[in-house]
Amino acid sequence: MTAVAELKYKPFRRYPALFTANFEESWLHKDFMIISQVFAKESSVKNFRDAVPDDLLHKEMDGVYSFNVFNDTFLRMLNEEINHFYEVSEVEGIPVRRPNSMNNYGLILNEIGMKPMITAFQQTYLWPLSRHLFPAQASQFDDHHSFIVRYRAGEDLGLDMHTDDSDVTFNVCLGEQFTGATLSFCGMFGAPNHRKHTHTYHHKVGRAILHLGNRRHGADDIESGRRCNLIIWNHNYEYRARGVNSWDRDSHYEREDGSPTLVCLSYTHDRDYEAYKELPEAAKRHVRKPWCPPPGYEYEGYFDEKH
Q1: Cβ-count burial of 92 within 10 angstroms (0-12 exposed, 13-18 middle, 19+ buried)?
Q2: Per residue in 208-257, pLDDT tens?
């Protein structure tokens, strides 16, 4: 699939620079230029709070950070290239795979030839920052799964609560104009507060959010307009080899400390979803295999409710 889509689209590329093994520094937002200088590969930052003001690198909550990353030039180029690909793919019959197992609309950028450019961004700019914020999970970045997600009326409105197949997730809003479509965060996978709401983030065009992949989160429904985001799932094979991020439901789960926050419920994963909410119509049409919380890890009072 990768070779087919990339080869078929190659003659139609609008911005060849997006398909090289280079990420131009001139594409960065001025704020991120300052951040990247502080966290350069050779630098050792003991206390980044002293080096980077909060208005440049904002701590949304423990383990979740936001910052301006791309400037208008790069945003325009990438958006135009993506929209151009959608148009060409329909005419030329270029295969387009779903970006992941949950989003129905979007595009895997690695499969149309942009992986070298994104790898350059990852290694030159994203990894030096990530390794300071998440020393264990981002001790190295070996690979990535990079894709576009799209939300609008008639397509995906939002995304059910989930964790990512990612050690560190980078998520930047590319546009366009929209209302709603916030991002809700809950607890870390397997923690007692796994399904407790901790923060709601409001997307801004050109601004990224960085968090660990095993934090439960979900995209709240869009109310109007269209929202497109670039997401990079960063993979650290050495970290994964240690088994500390394996999402093993038996060895990495603690008993829940209470009933879940409603916004943190997942109709895909949660056994008790229907005790609190009615299943969405789309979920009713599929065979569900909910598992959360695992047997033996239910919160006190779980069996007193309608399960």
Answers
A1: exposed
A2: 999 999 999 999 888 898 889 999 999 999 998 887 655 555 667 899 99
Cα gap 154→189, rounded to integer Å? 31
* Single-letter amino acid, residue 273: Y
Phi, psi of 52 (to 5 degrees): -130, 120
Cβ pair 30, 124 in contact under 8 A = no
Residue 4, classified by CB atoms within 10 Å of its CB into exposed (0-12), middle (13-18) or buried (19+), is exposed
Alpha helices in 213-268 (DSSP H): 237-241
CA distance 264 to 188: 12
Residue pair 205/175 in contact by the 8 Å Cβ criterion: yes
Q: Shortest CA distance to 268 belongs to which of 155, 102, 156, 154?
A: 102
Q: How far is CA 51 from the centre of its chain?
A: 26
